[in-house]
Amino acid sequence: MNGFIRRWKKEWPLHLMLLPGLTLVIIFSYIPMAGIVMAFEKYVPNKGLFGSPFIGLKNFQLLIEYPDIGRIFFNTVYIALMKIIAGLLVPITIAIMLNELRREWVKRTFQTLVYLPHFLSWVLLSGILVDVLSPSSGVINQVLSLFGIKPIFFLGNNDWFPYVMVISDVWKEFGFGTIVYLAALTSINPSLYEAAEIDGAGRFKQTLHVTLPGMLPIIILMFTLNIGNVLNAGFEQIFNLYSPPVYESADIIDTFVYRMGIQQSQFGFATAVGLLKSVVSLIFISISYILAYRLAKYRIF
What we know:
Elements lengths: L1 H29 L27 H8 L3 H31 L4 H12 L6 H11 L6 H8 L14 H26 L3 H9 L4 H24 L8 H7 L5 H4 L2 H11 L3 H30 L5
């Protein structure tokens, strides 16, 4: 008991510092969870959250019977998986290439430039992309026209739209990922490169047999942690760039929830969709942390 009191006296400033953040989490994350009850109601705004008629699992039944729900889940997983894979490969490649640069100022300058888009919002970037990819005046289509290629409506074509989302997301975020892998490269023992060079290994073989194995733990860690985002295809990005002509390939769970809940006022149905997504995401996140601990010895708790 005395040990507990002594430890509390020593750590109470830390608990006090934690209090504001904990308060915000309770107010904005836990208290709103009372709204989950709407998933089991036919929500009527003037009757309130606890006055609306209870309908049990009817909203979930409507969700299963909804004709486009399979396509919406497919779009979500398809776009999210492409983002996860590309979001690993591109930063790893760039980090290895930057590591090979001998001039430190060149490395730092390039690292800063590729990191800048991470700080820009999708509201701003979507306006830039709309102009750049315009079929009439966009820079991309003007370049294509020089090679005799007809203009492509990238943001209005179901075949192109998912890949535009992946490429633009990677362009925005790969600078941040590059920093993570550059940090992993600094932990590799330089004597391993010296030994490989003595054995006659060139730069390519050193990368293949020293650099990549040294980065492997962080690569496994980042991949397993990203598994939890397999149902998060990027609401803000897609919401600012999609339109009805590309709903077939662009509509994801989050945009579907927005349209059903906010635009069509089907609050109970939209809550049911969001709750199902949250439950599935929780399962994936739990699996990802188990895998992260098994494969990379990483744990939070």
